[in-house]
Amino acid sequence: MSTYVILLGPPGAGKGTQALNLAEHTGLLHLATGDMFRENVRNQTELGQAAQRYMDRGELVPDELTISMLLDRLARDDAQLGSLLDGFPRTTEQAEALDAALAEQNAEIAATLLIDVSADEVLRRLGGRWSCPDCGAVFHEVFSPPQTEGACDRCSAALIQRDDDQPEAIQRRLDVYAQQTAPLIDYYQRSGKLRRVDGERGPDAVGADLLAALESAD
Ligand SMILES: [Zn+2]
Predict the structure, then answer these.
(1) Which domain covers residue 206, as residue numbers?
(2) What is the pLDDT of residues 163-211, one digit of tens each?
(3) Neighbours of ion ligand 1 (CB under 5 A)
(4) How far is the CA of 140 from the centre of ligand 1 (A)?
């Protein structure tokens, strides 16, 4: 029986790093659904072509099509132990459709792991980033400050804060996340699948808790 797990967390929660770590320790396939989608379109699979037709018309790709891609991917050899789903579902409707599709295969979501990080902490983590416009080096006010304030360690160019890293832009991303994800969190809470992990600690502590939460879900 395959173990299917959903990973949730705001931008800046370290979801990508934790997904890699979890995959390594459990043998579950880390399935970043955005990558899966682009791969299908690039490789012109039947489902990728169908998705392309919707996008060409400026329409949203129907959830059933994305779920078909997902089930195809989960049927491959490297996902036999199961998978960590990262990026899907994003809405309650998608979560319901995914549950129904898995149920048809006598499968289900084992757990939904939420890496809990407050908005203030996300702003602290993502808001302090400064980039070098010349060589691309990235610094952080708190975690990896440049030796001279405002200047690149490598090439001395004046550092800039990219538009994406401005506090207002981060706040907008957080608002979208909260709006989309809150109903999803409720949904998995109601079904008893939600496991909350305190994400405001070092990556090792968070990783250990995620593993423990996953083991307790089986
Ligand atoms: Zn530089």
Answers:
(1) 3-118+181-217
(2) 988 999 999 999 999 998 999 999 999 999 999 999 999 999 999 999 9
(3) 132, 134-135, 137, 152, 154-155, 157
(4) 14
The domain spanning residue 60 has which CATH number?
3.40.50.300
pTM: 0.87
- The single residue of 73, 124, 173, 196 carrying the catalytic annotation is 173
Instruction: Say if 112 falls within a structural domain.
Output: yes
Helix (H, G, I), strand (E, B) or coil at 33: helix
> How many angstroms separate the CA atoms of 25 and 18, rounded?
11
201 domain residue, yes or no: yes
Q: Which of 38, 53, 154, 162 is catalytic?
A: 162
- Taking only the tens place, the pLDDT of each residue in 101-155 is 999 999 999 999 999 999 999 999 998 999 999 999 999 998 899 999 999 999 9
User: Does residue 92 form part of some domain?
Assistant: yes
Tally of structural domains, the chain:
1
Instruction: Answer yes or no: is 156 within a domain.
Output: no
Q: What is the pLDDT of residues 43-77, one digit of tens each?
A: 999 999 999 999 999 999 999 999 999 999 999 99
- Catalytic, out of 15, 125, 193, 195: 15
Closest CA to 200 of 128, 119, 140, 127: 119
Pairing of strands 129-131, 138-140: antiparallel
Contact 8, 113 (CB under 8 A): yes
**Is 162 among the residues known to form the active site?**
yes
